[in-house]
């Protein structure tokens, strides 16, 4: 069994996944627009170039996403995507990238359980927790 986050975007899924792929060194495995799919007629003509389904492979995890039609879109809340890193320098780089035009909830810093931990909501509205744990505190 695998658990995979599925993120819904407000029309900027393609841009968000391209940004994440570059920042994380990840691979976009799939990106299907509404146009040409069985769902094409369920969205307005100006929304058909938006993403119906996408999959980004980050390490061994799949981050899935799509654009949500404006009439049913709700911003992400009540959750955060947790990104675990082994290298504090890499945690700092990722946090800095996600922070560009984003909102920092907790600056990246050392905690009793982590060499680096911080929380940020990126410019696409995705809330992240960046954790570079101390080996003795893992789990």
From TrEMBL:
Domain of life of the organism encoding this protein: Bacteria
Record field: transmembrane: none
Name of the protein in question: Glyoxalase/fosfomycin resistance/dioxygenase domain-containing protein
Any Pfam family hit: Glyoxalase
Domain Glyoxalase/fosfomycin resistance/dioxygenase, residue spans: 6-130
Organism: Blastopirellula retiformator
């Amino acid at each position: 069994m695998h658990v995979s986050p599925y993120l819904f975007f407000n029309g900027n899924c393609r841009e968000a996944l391209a940004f994440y792929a570059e920042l994380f060194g990840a691979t976009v495995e799939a990106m299907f627009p509404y146009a040409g799919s069985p769902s094409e007629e369920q969205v307005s003509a100006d929304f058909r170039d938006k993403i119906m389904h996408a999959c980004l492979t980050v390490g061994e995890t799949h981050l899935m996403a799509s654009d949500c039609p404006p009439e049913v879109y709700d911003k992400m809340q009540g959750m955060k995507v947790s990104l675990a890193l082994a290298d504090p320098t890499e945690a700092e780089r990722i946090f800095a990238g996600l922070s560009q035009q984003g909102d920092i909830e907790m600056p990246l810093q050392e905690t009793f359980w982590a060499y680096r931990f911080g929380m940020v909501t990126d410019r696409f509205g995705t809330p992240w927790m960046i954790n570079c744990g101390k080996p003795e505190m893992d789990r």
